[in-house]
């Protein structure tokens, strides 16, 4: 940690996908830098951020890709998915449509991605509980049917963000090691 010459045992590419404004960029900012900005603009330019962590005494560098504002269906290019071993499928739990679109995102992801892709369904903005439009059970059912991990998060309040990424990275590690 903090050593620029540290040995990296693994590099895992994980992609963030889901509708615009569900909180993908803020989830990434929270995970990679422990930051949140209230007035986040549509993502500009940055392709990915990295965070290095230790799993089972191995140094794992996670490379988390953000969609840079191309969140329309079929607008995300295959280069984005290439080489990904994990994915965070993000909806906004206060926006039913963003959850209903998960099936299309998943189809697109599975069309491009690796067979063994580890996928986490993420219901973000759980701090806005009174505005909830997606019951936990609906998401659980979808996740179970599609064989996805599932977690409700808040990038704002830092709820479950690390756990969500860590769960995916640990599962990837478990599969490839
Ligand atoms: P993206 O388009 O999916 O990258 O979404 P952003 O990360 O840019 O977030 C869209 C909006 O939702 C911004 O105004 C964020 O401040 C807000 N937002 C993101 N995550 C949360 C969260 O966990 N809780 C709340 N209340 N707002 C959030
Ligand atoms: Mg964004």
Automatic annotation (TrEMBL):
Subcellular localization, as worded in the UniProt entry: Endomembrane system
GO CC aspect terms: endomembrane system
GO molecular function ontology, one term from the record: GTPase activity
TM region(s), chain numbering: none
Membrane topology: Lipid-anchor
Stated family: Belongs to the small GTPase superfamily. Rab family.
Protein name according to UniProt: Ras-related protein RABA4d
Organism per entry: Gossypium anomalum
Part of the whole protein covered: 5 to 181 of 222
């Amino acid at each position: 940690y903090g050593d620029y010459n540290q040995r990296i045992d693994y590099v895992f590419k994980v992609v963030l996908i889901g509708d615009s404004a569900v909180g993908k960029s803020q989830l990434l900012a929270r995970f990679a830098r422990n930051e949140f900005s209230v007035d986040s603009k549509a993502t500009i330019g940055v392709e990915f951020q990295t965070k290095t962590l230790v799993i089972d005494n191995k140094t794992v560098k996670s490379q988390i890709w953000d969609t840079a504002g191309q969140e329309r269906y079929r607008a995300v290019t295959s280069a984005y998915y290439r080489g990904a071993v994990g994915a965070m499928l993000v909806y906004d739990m206060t926006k039913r449509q963003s959850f209903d679109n998960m099936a299309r995102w998943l189809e697109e992801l599975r069309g491009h991605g690796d067979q063994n892709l580890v996928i986490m369904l993420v219901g973000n903005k759980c701090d806005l509980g009174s505005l909830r439009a997606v019951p936990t059970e609906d998401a659980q059912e979808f996740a179970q049917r599609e064989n996805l991990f599932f977690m409700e998060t808040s990038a704002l309040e830092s709820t479950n963000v690390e756990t969500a990424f860590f769960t995916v990275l640990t599962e990837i590690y478990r599969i490839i090691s």
